[in-house]
């Protein structure tokens, strides 16, 4: 009875080529003499399996590996790993490094594997695409994988989107993250900030302003919505006040907040201008004599 085909995603499935294997093949029935044959399912000793040198994934959750190892002890390996034969005593992992690591933790000596031929570029592309499709990969690892597929595999943005099953805009949003300062990229990798935070920050062109916003996120535990609002306020202020470019980023931010509070207090659009020497002006416009009197009352002044 034939087993169901493994759904590995459009890009990975096309590269690996769909194959069917016999379900519940007894370990004793595996012909050890054909263990080096290509395009076959067989048992390969873990001591002969080496990591993919092009593996883009840099972090494996210890807890997750232990959970998978416990499952393997009970259920065994449900889906064979995919290997590339280097020589009679060495194989490189194309896909399934997490399963190999968990199998070692579970105390297995060998794992079922599909042996296939692959060029070095295919090794890279297969490893990148498989990892991109995993849910536990952080945003920076995904972005780096996209960048490598473009730079090292020669894929165009449209082709990349088709391979990984993502819209071009989604792929581009990840690639933009690599333009952020290293400090922010590390925080995103370590999940101190979310993808939403990073996408809001990247809309600011100035690195010093990006870092100022990032520090506020960390110290004040700002939500994504609050960061998006903060970015809109800063961008609006920069566009309306060219002289603000000369200000310190934190001072610029506080100036925009003050301008907003004064506008709310007086019920009219207050404009603050200041230069690097702390000289400037505050403009409070009024539309009529009644409006003028209203503002004077708010100032607690009498004519």
From TrEMBL:
One record GO biological process: chromosome segregation
Alphabetized SUPFAM superfamilies for the sequence: KorB DNA-binding domain-like (SSF109709), ParB/Sulfiredoxin (SSF110849)
Highest taxon of the lineage: Bacteria
Listed InterPro entries: Chromosome_partition/occlusion, HTH_ParB/Spo0J, ParB/RepB/Spo0J, ParB/Sulfiredoxin_sf, ParB_dimer_C, ParB_N
GO CC annotations on file: chromosome
Coiled coil: none
Start and end residues of each ParB-like N-terminal domain: 42-132
An annotated Gene Ontology molecular function: DNA binding
Entry keywords, A to Z: Chromosome partition, DNA-binding
Family: Belongs to the ParB family.
Name of the protein: ParB family chromosome partitioning protein
């Amino acid at each position: 009875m034939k087993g169901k085909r493994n759904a590995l995603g459009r890009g990975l499935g096309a590269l690996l080529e769909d194959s069917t294997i016999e379900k519940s093949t007894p370990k004793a029935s595996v012909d050890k003499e054909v263990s080096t044959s290509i395009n076959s399912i067989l048992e390969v000793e873990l001591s002969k399996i080496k990591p993919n040198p092009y593996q883009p994934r840099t972090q494996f959750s210890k807890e997750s590996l232990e959970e998978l190892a416990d499952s393997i002890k009970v259920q065994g390996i449900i889906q064979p790993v995919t290997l590339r034969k280097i020589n009679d005593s060495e194989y490189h992992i194309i896909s399934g490094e997490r399963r190999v690591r968990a199998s070692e933790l579970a105390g297995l000596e060998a794992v079922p594997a599909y042996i296939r031929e692959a060029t070095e570029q295919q090794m890279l592309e297969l490893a990148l695409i498989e990892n991109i499709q995993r849910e536990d990969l952080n945003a920076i690892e995904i972005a780096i994988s996209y960048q490598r597929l473009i730079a090292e595999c020669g894929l165009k943005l449209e082709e990349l989107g088709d391979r990984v099953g993502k819209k071009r805009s989604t792929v581009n949003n990840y690639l933009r993250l690599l333009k952020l300062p290293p400090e922010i990229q590390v925080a995103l990798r370590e999940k101190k900030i979310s993808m939403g935070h990073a996408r809001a920050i990247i809309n600011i062109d100035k690195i010093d302003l990006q870092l100022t916003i990032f520090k506020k996120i960390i110290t004040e535990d700002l939500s994504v919505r609050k960061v998006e609002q903060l970015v809109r306020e800063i961008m609006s202020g920069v566009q309306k006040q060219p002289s603000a470019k000369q200000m310190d980023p934190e001072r610029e931010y506080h100036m925009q907040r003050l301008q907003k509070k004064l506008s709310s207090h007086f019920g009219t659009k207050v404009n603050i201008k200041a230069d690097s020497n702390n000289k400037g002006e505050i403009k409070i416009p009024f539309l009529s004599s009644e409006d003028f009197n209203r503002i004077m009352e708010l100032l607690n002044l009498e004519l």
